[in-house]
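Help: read this over?
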Amino acid sequence: MRLRVCGIALVAFGALASPAAATTEVIKASDALVWDRPNVAIAPGDTVEWTFDGTVQAHHAAANGASDADAAWASFSSPLGVPAPPASYTFQNEGVYNFYCSVHKDTMTGTVTVSKAPVEVPAPPPPPLSAQPLANDAPADVPVETGVALDTAKPGLTAVSAKRRGTGARVKFKVTEESVTGIVFSRGTKRVKTYAVSGHGALYFDAKGLRAGKYTVTLVAVDLAGNRSKARKLRVTVR
């Protein structure tokens, strides 16, 4: 009888000691060109979600280099947008994963540390001086301009072409005004690579390290006011 009671106790303890439920950590982007949480620590099986609510500039989230812990991480890249749609990734393996917004790669960088053991995460850096209030700041009446026309014109995206170049492809295009142009390489329904190019006029971008095969290339330009061009699609074969 004593052994039986111990067995029941062990079963009950096992039920109580089941693994904790997976969680989702949220990282928010801002037009100050920083992430609100550039460094997060999670456990295997947890998810990180990047959100862009309230932003009026083109942003996205993408892997900033490969990770030995997860080969699939290298191809993670969410669509550009104003505001961009939320993006998420579930991390199964322990390791350190670097991410960034490729449009603002000088300041919008961060890391996700995946570990079964607790990890101390450094506090985020203070906002830039331009975003910090001064002691003598006081509300002031701001005159409201009327009759100012809003920019609703879509940027023109023309002369689009793509040709094989080495183990990749060169994409050429023209944009009529200052914009961020998103370039997406897809195979079937799978998004393989996403790039962002800033500027206007005649531009080009060399996509490198593509596997051999046929790709659909989609381009969309987003101007400073958030107006989106008509999507342009073409095909290219990499050998």
